[in-house]
Amino acid sequence: MVHLLSFAALASAAFVSVTATPTRRAMAVAEQRTVPITFASAGKPAADTTLDLRIALKQKDMEGLEKALFDVSTPSSSLYGQHLSLEQVAAFAAPTEQSVNAVTQWLQENGVADITPSGPFNDWISFSVSASKADELFDTNFEDFVHIESGERFVRTLQYSIPQDLVQHIDLVHPTTTFVKPLVQRPVMSVPVPGTANVTERALGAPSSCNSVVTPACLQSLYGIPTTRATQSSNKLGVSGFIDQFAQTADLRTFLANLRPDLSSTTTFTVQSVDGGVNTQSARQAGIEANLDIQYTVGVATGVPTIFITVGDNNADGVNGFIDIINALNAESAPPQVLTTSYGFDEPDLGSALATRVCNAYMTLGARGVSILFASGDGGVSGGQSQSCTTFIPAFPGGCPFHTSVGATQGVNEVAADFSSGGFSNVFARPSYQSGAVTTYLNALGNTNSGKFNPSGRAFPDIAAQGVNVEIVDGGSAGLVAGTSCSSPIFASVVSLINDRLIAAGKPVLGFLNPFLYANPQAFFDITSGSNPGCNTNGFPARAGWDPVTGLGTPNFAAMLTAAGL
């Protein structure tokens, strides 16, 4: 059992009378920004509008946790594979008693009563106040903002302050300056068209039909993925679901009957709910993204128990449940060993403080032996989605160093898909595990795109997989989809199959992947053609070795097994 601070006891200890007017504390600006061009101010909310806010408390020792993460994730380390327990992670990630006391006392002094701990380590304080009270507390001006394209409205502010004497205890207040665009369904479905593209076949001998329609059989041929069933019931593969995208069991049955006839058509997945998420079953409720993600995990990671984690609309974390799903998994004693997500944002949407906090949540989960994979995005160098820009826009969480970013390829000869998002973070520094590979690329790149990206930032993606003309079944009909949304579940399936064999051999699972990946570039098919245009440029070119379009390349299952010591 994790021993965390008792907020009830602390609140009682910190209680002071709120009948008297508290002394105004000196304030310090915590964050500020301008209105993003995709949003417009819509005036002041009513003074009594209720705002659900969260304060992210400073965590005890995230530098220590980062060292521990790399110790257990770097193959050359004597601690490799000795993943941390929930209790061990909590010792790093929980706030200090001093921080809890100080922030709780300040809130109570100002008449805030409903103070609730949240997060797996009680590292957030949640509370609700009126808009007028929030203005007073944070020396700010909350406003209504509207997302111009969708019409969705948010209450946010462009600047807020916190007491100077609490700066050492508070990472951020949220949601305040975060302006995330509504999540959208990435892949677009089209009807399969007969015929094949004129593309050269690759050495592993996938049939030329795979140039036009990608199926599980194509992936098995291209990457050497086995069809034999996994054997370890403790090995779990998690699939994130958002924005009311529902994975259909009927569509999965049809998919398996058509494209994996060697598997029982009754093979299915389990469902886990976060924030009241559901998984409604009907052809009308079919979700292209959800069906894609489930069909290319259940249908590729043969026999691996798969969990569809559906995040509902009942979230107040300001980022569509991205915080809540990681908090939910972090609170579990045995979370799935692999998690794939095919959604994301642009890095500037979150701001550096929130991006860092979410990224650190991935660190806590990775330290426990969870491989976290995200689709890199579909906007080339212009971000998660194609958009106008003058300088390159990093996707999020692409720039986070504690997850694995997956780009896209196409064709049997595997060239870079032109939409594959990649580039360099403006928030996160380049981690040591990729320093050599990225330096080599930048030296070869020379002055190309100079001034349009941050060459010292964390570079992404890390690896890639097929992402064009991928066949799925949706609403009872077969069709083709494209996007890095295809690539992440495919690579996640490969990792899960390797984990199955590791567990069977009595070895630890791969866990946080990146140090292992960059230490073993020979375990991937290097992609040397294509680019990811955007921002009125040709983007970055793919080339020998790592590149910011396809990363280290696509999986070679046999070589990855060897690298894993199997």
> Unreliable segments (pLDDT under 50, ≥5 consecutive)?
1-19, 193-201
Mean pLDDT: 92
Number of strands: 25
Put simply, the count of helices is 15
| Global structural class | alpha/beta
Question: Overview of this structure, please?
Answer:
- Helix 1 crosses helix 4, helix 8 runs parallel beside helix 13 and helix 9 runs parallel beside helix 11.
- The protein has 566 residues and is α/β, with parallel strands linked by helices.
- It has 15 helices and 25 strands.
- The longest helix is centred in the last third of the chain and has 21 residues.
- It has two domains: 133 residues, no CATH class; 356 residues, Peptidase S8/S53 domain (Rossmann fold), CATH 3.40.50.200.
- Strands 10, 11, 12, 13, 15, 17, 18 and 21 form an eight-stranded mixed β-sheet that branches. A four-stranded antiparallel β-sheet has the order 4-5-3-9. Strands 2-6-7 form a three-stranded antiparallel β-sheet, with no helix packed on it.
- Keywords: Calcium, Glycoprotein, Hydrolase, Metal-binding, Protease, Secreted, Serine protease, Signal, Virulence, Zymogen.
